[in-house]
Amino acid sequence: MVNESVRRLQSFVDGAYIDGVSSWEKRSPVDGSLVAVVEEAGAEQVDAAVAAARRALEGPWGRSSVAERAALMRRIADRIEARFDDFVAAEIGDTGKPLKQARELDVARAVVNFRSFADTVSATGLDSFLTELADGRRALNYAVPRPLGVVAVVVPWNLPLLLLTWKVAPALACGNAVIVKPSEETPSTATLLAEVIAEAGAPAGIYNVLHGFGPGSAGEMLTTHPDIDGVTFTGESATGAAIMRGVAPYVRPVSFELGGKNAALVFADADLEKAVAGLGRSIFTNTGQVCLCTERVYIQRPVYDEVVAGLVEHARGLRLGRPEAEGTTTGPLISREHRAKVHGYLDLAREDGADVLVGGGIPDLGADLADGAWIEPTLWAGLDHSSRVLREEVFGPVAALMPFDSEDEAVKLANDSRYGLAAATWTSDLERGHRVAQQMRVGMSWVNTWYLRDLRSPFGGVGLSGIGREGGTHSMHFYTEPTNVCVQL
Ligand SMILES: NC(=O)C1=CN([C@@H]2O[C@H](COP(=O)(O)OP(=O)(O)OC[C@H]3O[C@@H](n4cnc5c(N)ncnc54)[C@H](O)[C@@H]3O)[C@@H](O)[C@H]2O)C=CC1
Ligand SMILES: O=C(O)/C=C/C=C(\O)C(=O)O
């Protein structure tokens, strides 16, 4: 039985909430309590969303000016700010993440995403060339960006609103219509955003939300729909591969930000206090559920023991608890299913001979939280580089610590991965910092910091970590198709 006070979440198509074909119960990873009943969209709702988005593009929205669209982005940002606490509550309800993080990272970044892409679209000029041929003819070439069209936005559960708005803001700023498929684990903020975008004066049909799952459900139905024009996706690499297969018959562009198995390198000359604090953040933020999180830490041998001791102390100082509780630093994993996956790696690490320095199991947080998806922050030493624990993305609050001797060895170990998303180098030798950072085979290479973002810079990965870059003008390129005009003068 569903308590009457429990929210029902519906898909949002053509400016209105619509019924689904079935429903599921979204439960809190904090204590297993019921958060919402979510209606699953079926093929009919997917068709309706694609048709609504297409109609919107054919209407006034398709002729809107950059200035009008930038103004709308700013009004949406203002409306999110006006309902900041509602977004924070919705995000916490779905994920169990600490209140402070939801406020300072997730929802704050949603506001910045809209403002930043309002700025970028306003400042982006045209590519143009004055062409002078050998025979004396002259021409003006200029490329006019047209919207990509109907864009499918498929996003995961780890930073739900942040990652959703990171794609929706530039897509709308460029004049597209979007159909969002939020994760089945985090349906709330995408639904609330529909209300806010409508309140900000957006035309019906430019922002649609379909609730559902991946294979055989709304995710697959949307990304294999013949009338979408492109897919932007963040999530697991295997899911990216499945989406690629789905769009292949229609030859649609994709932008993928996928998994990571990110390395950090700590050199003996680093400021160790800062390095340990930075590593603590890069391993454990969001319970390790950020694609950028560090899961492999290489430490130069002379400072190995000191860094290991510092990290163990940091992990022991983390406070697992309810999002709103004073002092909570760390929430649960997103679900029991995901915990089973992470727990599988804890078992595997032991089988592969890891020395478990801290954590390694499921914590006892009392009867109140017994039905949640809690896991202990865990650090390992002594793992061989060939262990699957060091090759596969765990996506939990875990890292393996390993010593190295030379810079060349550290670079080689860090790059020994099929993933290539992010890296962090800790050193007080600036030359080394630049040298090592540039050798990392990744999309984002930080020096003496981690997850410091400038939204104008390219964001994405190489290898199994993705295809393409988003951010600033890189987003503009993905969400538009240029038409080159050549006028003989
Ligand atoms: N690197 C990253 O950013 C993330 C990695 N993960 C990893 O992925 C694992 C699986 O978690 P999931 O939530 O299942 O992530 P996922 O990557 O499979 O799901 C992300 C989104 O894709 C949708 N989806 C799944 N299969 C699809 C398909 N065939 N076609 C279209 N859409 C599809 C999902 O419904 C969700 O909205 C996690 O255990 C975690 O390790 C999960 C979330 C983010
Ligand atoms: O800051 C961003 O734009 C994105 C951060 C994190 C991810 O992309 C992720 O965890 O997938």
TrEMBL record:
<dbReference type="InterPro" id="IPR016161">
    <property type="entry name" value="Ald_DH/histidinol_DH"/>
</dbReference>
<dbReference type="InterPro" id="IPR016160">
    <property type="entry name" value="Ald_DH_CS_CYS"/>
</dbReference>
<feature type="domain" description="Aldehyde dehydrogenase">
    <location>
        <begin position="23"/>
        <end position="484"/>
    </location>
</feature>
<dbReference type="InterPro" id="IPR017628">
    <property type="entry name" value="OHmuconic_semiald_DH"/>
</dbReference>
<dbReference type="InterPro" id="IPR029510">
    <property type="entry name" value="Ald_DH_CS_GLU"/>
</dbReference>
<keyword id="KW-0560">Oxidoreductase</keyword>
<dbReference type="Pfam" id="PF00171">
    <property type="entry name" value="Aldedh"/>
</dbReference>
<dbReference type="InterPro" id="IPR016162">
    <property type="entry name" value="Ald_DH_N"/>
</dbReference>
<comment type="similarity">
    <text>Belongs to the aldehyde dehydrogenase family.</text>
</comment>
<dbReference type="GO" id="GO:0016491">
    <property type="term" value="F:oxidoreductase activity"/>
</dbReference>
<keyword id="KW-0520">NAD</keyword>
<dbReference type="InterPro" id="IPR016163">
    <property type="entry name" value="Ald_DH_C"/>
</dbReference>
<dbReference type="InterPro" id="IPR015590">
    <property type="entry name" value="Aldehyde_DH_dom"/>
</dbReference>
<feature type="active site">
    <location>
        <position position="257"/>
    </location>
</feature>
<protein>
    <submittedName>
        <fullName>2-hydroxymuconic semialdehyde dehydrogenase</fullName>
        <ecNumber>1.2.1.85</ecNumber>
    </submittedName>
</protein>
